[in-house]
Amino acid sequence: MLKFVMKIYFFCVKNLIKIGKKSMEEIQIQTKDGVKIALNHYKSGFNHVVIIAPGWFMTKDSKSFKEMSEIFSKYSDVITIDFRGHGKSGGFYTFTSEEVNDMEAVIKYAHELYTKIYLMGFSLGGALTLIAGANNELIKKIVAVSAPSCFEKIENKVWKKEAWIPTMQKCELKRWFSIRPGFLNKKKIKPIDIVEDIKCPTLFIAGEKDPTVCCWHTKALYDKAVCQKKYELFKDCSHAEDLFLQDKEKFIKLCCEWLFS
Fold it and tell me: Which helix (H) or strand (E) holds 259?
């Protein structure tokens, strides 16, 4: 009798774990200009999804973005992108010129599966989420972290300790060797020119000691936006995903309250 009861118990435990288990699937989609884009799709059974857009030199499989994706998959399904010229995607990175096609393809893919789409972008990925969200009724909310107002005005003071120390702390040679930059001089949409066209609620986040995209960029975007909006400055923090790494509890709480409340 005891053996039978124990079998039933372990069967129930096993299936409860299976029911609550999240899954991650790596997939590829194709943009309208023929570039293959790799995605990590975290499926937790929600009817809404957060599309996470890393910046230049970061990939969906970077340690910081894998951790971030896992955490946010507790509250939403998540799709994390390798932009062209990064990781397992094809093509060459054009510093937001052609990556707008990558965002368009990912949003189209998500729209076929979810009723609500949220965007979360970092640095140039933040610029791309703002561009993608302008006049786009499919996007319900945006979080833009360290987004530049204009590519040409990015400071990128790589010699400052706030820049090179976090870079070395995130050293991943496999990721570094996967980066394929393209031409810098292609025409780009300036986020400051389109931010007024964003209709959905948008959270603008900046790091007080950002040496790459100084916090005035984010404040300028926030000031010009006419949607429901919020500006948050992380004291003593630097750039993009480093805000997540340097003040994880605050970052997660802030983004979850904005996106899911």
Answer: helix 248-260
Which residue shows structure tokens 């971030």? 68
Res 18: pLDDT = 37
Kindly list the structural domains of the chain, giving each domain's residue range(s) and its CATH number in brackets, ordered by start: 26-260 (3.40.50.1820)
Torsion of CA 171, 241, 233, 117, to 10 degrees: 170
**Residue 4 above 80 pLDDT?**
no
pLDDT (0 to 100) of residue 22:
79
Q: Is the pTM for the entire model greater than 0.85?
A: yes
Dihedrals phi, psi of 240, to nearest 5 degrees: 50, -125
**What residue type is 171 in one-letter code?**
C
Strand order in the sheet with 77-82: 23-30, 36-43, 77-82, 48-53, 116-122, 139-145, 202-207, 229-234
